[in-house]
Design brief:
Blueprint (H helix, E strand, L loop, with lengths): L14 H11 L4 H5 L5 E4 L15 E15 L4 E9 L2 E7 L3 H7 L5 E7 L1 E3 L2 E5 L2 E4 H6 L5 E4 L4 H5 L4 H15 L9 H6 L5 H9 L4 H33 L10 H10 L6 H15 L5 E6 L5 H13 L4 E5 L3 H14 L7 E4 L5 H13 L4 E4 L13 E7 L6 H8 L7 E6 L5 H7 L4 E5 L10 E6 L3 H13 L3 E5 L7 H18 L7 E4 L5 H12 L5 E4 L12 E6 L7 H8 L10 E6 L5 H12 L3 H12 L24 H17 L9 H13 L8
Parallel strand pairs: 4-7, 10-15, 10-16, 11-13, 11-14, 12-13, 14-15, 17-22, 18-20, 18-21, 19-20, 21-22
Antiparallel strand pairs: 1-9, 2-3, 2-5, 3-4, 5-8, 6-7
Bound molecules: adenosine-5'-diphosphate and magnesium ion.
């Protein structure tokens, strides 16, 4: 039996039904159907007595009998009401459809098993449209007591492809194929990792014999799914390490040492030191570095980036640093030129607004090797940018760039340069493992000393006046403040108006010449943005009114207050990024989240989380729980969206176990050539070919 056959092979699946199943659920082949897993189960092993029913009981099963049946007229047609009793009490069964037929066929005073959803109204329980079965027939059936529920759609239900019908299809299929289901894990795997055999797992996930087998079957299938994803990622990483030889940076040379001993403005944190060590280990070996550096806002990634670039320069290579926005590129440029001011290292910046003449100069000095460090935006990816010898490429804020950009950087030299990807958006570990499983990961999990936690509060729009008063007090102390407005593309016009209205009211409240205000938004010319930004950086203005363009990376240590307008419209990671703009100096800083009174429950959770914690990883976990992996940046290109049974949030412990199993396997048998691993290798190849786990398993 070939599982790749279309589902029309199954009894009862006509061409029309097959088309509908494909359209609605993406089920095309028998294999698709076999791996269409129930999303929950109805437990019919349990019976209730009527006196056990509670208002919050949802679906229940009761044994009893009908003692009375009556038709009650209503506006349109009539409803059928049965009085149903057991030894302990009475409930009502109600039908609105099929009244006539039911009235004739239901039996009075005969024991029934009823099953359905319970309603509670005016002191009585009732059950609309219950499933009814005579007790004597119920006893004859050997059907499984735990029943699977498959997700369905309205269109399918309308065409009478109900849960029961889908269950029938799968039953028919399982009967036909159960003896051809092969195991893809070796015997010792099943034993070591305590896994149900594949066939048992598939049978029990669809038609479980009992609760404990449901759990075991799910565990096995989740483990398998996650295991093969991890195996792909880890093997890819392993192959890259073997195939792609990196440039070897043998020397920790003069520039690095000179800077480290004479010009470092502060002591590195232990976390920064550890990460540098990890990077140095990579570049000193023959391996090609492909490393992700995670570090919360303000954790000090820039200095790590600079030192890493100096390593390249000391080995006669050039280095580049790419940022997602022009403002951020400028900040990096300013920070790095300042750090290097007493050293002889050439640094340039290239963005979309670099003038032609300057651009030409940069092209030339890049090509002849006199330019050592180039900082810029994605303009750096243009084909015209040719280096003499690029050895290190650093990409800041990875989640704004795609995998494609990473790949483009690779091609900027005949041998790919070492790549360091930096992100300030903490990614929950489970997600990082699945998204970046092919990268090595370093984490700066320690903030520079002396930082005070940013005091965060949630206030309503009506508190605005007292907030303005607070801002004035802070400004009087010499501090600077940010006031940020949302800018979401779909409603750009409205947002722009909000920003301008807000700006006008702030101008009224904070009049010149006592107060100076900068404004930065997406509709401004880059040169104007830079001008305004710089006024704020230099302290010439005390208030920065902005849309989220300042979200990433901007560093003004004197700023002590971040006010977020319409905070309910921001996502958690954005809010976290924004808050990271303050608390960069030694002074106490504040983050004020303003919202309207009307808040969705998700928005409430977001704001509450921000008030309660400043740990970026915790915030990321909440974000993942709220939005699911599908809506987080970067997941679109990866396989994590196509998971059929595992859930990255709920099944994180299985993920760790599966990943460890894959690591152990590759240590024992790097190329999966041992005969005992033949079945794993076969599945691995199949997935590789089809780029999806369940796509062709038979
Ligand atoms: P991010 O990781 O968000 O890019 P930055 O590199 O911009 O953080 O660093 C934030 C601030 O902390 C900068 O002003 C930087 O000079 C300072 N900083 C970084 N590392 C240290 C350290 N080890 N000790 C003290 N200050 C540091
Ligand atoms: Mg940064």
């Amino acid at each position: 039996m070939n599982l790749q056959q279309p589902i029309t092979y199954i009894k009862g699946v006509s061409l029309a039904r097959a088309e509908l199943l494909y359209k609605e659920l993406g089920i095309k082949t028998c294999s698709d159907l076999l791996h269409f897993f129930p999303f929950r189960y109805i437990d019919k092993t349990q019976f209730y007595t009527i006196n056990q029913l509670r208002q919050n009981s949802s679906e229940v099963q009761i044994i009893g009998k009908i003692i009375n049946l009556k038709t009650v007229p209503q506006k349109r047609g009539s409803r059928l009401v049965a009085t149903f009793i057991d030894k302990t009490g009475t409930i009502e069964l109600v039908w609105f459809r099929g009244v006539k037929w039911l009235k004739e066929s239901l039996k009075i005073n005969e024991p029934y098993v009823v099953y359905g959803k319970l309603n509670f109204y005016a002191g009585t329980f009732s059950m609309p449209h219950p499933e009814m079965e005579l007790l004597k027939e119920h006893k004859l059936k050997i059907q499984s007591a735990i029943q699977p529920v498959y997700s369905s759609t309205e269109k399918l239900t309308n065409k009478n492809i109900t849960n029961r019908v889908i269950r029938g299809f799968i039953e028919d299929l399982l009967v036909k194929v159960k003896d051809t289901i092969t195991e893809n894990f070796p015997e010792y795997f099943l034993k070591n990792y305590n896994l149900l055999a594949k066939k048992e797992a598939l049978l029990n996930v669809h038609f479980p014999k009992n609760q404990s087998l449901v759990a075991k079957a799910q565990y096995r299938l989740k483990f398998e799914e996650l295991f093969f994803i991890q195996l792909q990622l880890l093997r890819k990483k392993q192959l890259q390490k073997i195939k792609i030889k990196g440039f070897v940076f043998e020397n920790v040379g003069e520039t690095f040492t000179n800077f480290y001993t004479n010009h470092l403005p502060f002591k590195l944190t232990n976390a920064q030191k550890r990460v540098l060590k990890e990077i140095r280990k990579d570049v000193a070996s023959h391996a090609h570095m492909n490393r992700l550096l995670q570090g919360d806002v303000g954790s000090g990634k820039t200095i790590v980036a600079l030192l890493t670039m100096l390593l390249a320069i000391d080995n006669n290579f050039q280095a580049t640093l790419m940022a997602p926005t022009e403002i951020l590129a400028i900040q990096h440029y300013n920070a790095i030129t300042e750090l290097l001011q007493n050293m002889d290292v050439s640094v340039e910046i290239l963005t979309g607004s670099t003038k032609t003449k300057k651009r030409k100069e940069i092209h030339e000095s890049l090509a002849d090797g006199t330019l050592k460090i180039l900082i810029g935006t994605h303009a750096l990816l243009e084909d015209k940018i040719q280096y003499k010898n690029l050895g290190m490429a650093i990409i800041d804020e990875q989640h704004r760039f795609g995998v494609a950009q990473r790949a483009k950087m690779w091609r900027k030299n005949t041998i790919p340069p070492h790549i360091l990807v930096m992100t300030a958006t903490p990614i929950p570990r489970t997600l990082a493992m699945s998204l970046y499983g092919d990268l090595d990961i370093s984490v700066i999990d320690e903030l520079p000393p002396g930082r005070k936690e940013v005091k965060t509060v949630h206030r309503y729009d009506s508190n605005r006046l007292s907030i303005f008063k607070f801002l004035k007090e802070e400004i009087a102390k010499g501090r600077q403040v940010y006031i940020v407005y949302p800018l979401i593309e779909e409603s750009e016009v409205m947002d722009y108006k909000d920003l301008m209205d807000g700006y006008a009211s702030i101008e009224r409240e904070f009049p010149k010449p006592t107060y100076q205000i900068s404004i930065v938004h997406g509709k401004m010319k880059p040169a104007d943005k830079e001008f305004e930004m710089n006024r704020f950086v230099k302290g010439e203005t005390q208030i920065m009114v902005a849309t989220t363009v300042i979200e990433v990376g901007v560093n003004v240590p004197n700023a002590s207050v971040m006010v977020v307008e319409s905070a309910e419209r921001f996502g958690l990671s954005q809010l976290h990024q924004l808050r990271g703009r303050v608390g960069r100096g030694a002074k106490q800083s504040y983050c004020i989240l303003l919202s309207s009174f009307k808040l969705s429950s998700e928005a409430k959770t977001r704001l509450k989380t921000m008030v309660e914690t400043s740990d970026g990883f915790k915030i990321a976990e909440v974000d993942l729980k709220l939005r699911g992996p599908g809506n987080l940046m970067g997941t679109q290109q990866s396989g994590v969206l196509n998971l059929k049974i595992a859930d990255l949030v709920k099944d994180s412990s299985i993920l760790y176990q599966a990943r460890n199993a894959a690591i152990t396997l590759l240590q024992n048998d790097p190329d999966l050539s041992k005969p005992v691993h033949a079945s794993i290798l076969k599945t691995y190849h199949r997935i590789e070919k089809n780029s999806g786990f369940w796509s062709e398993i038979s």
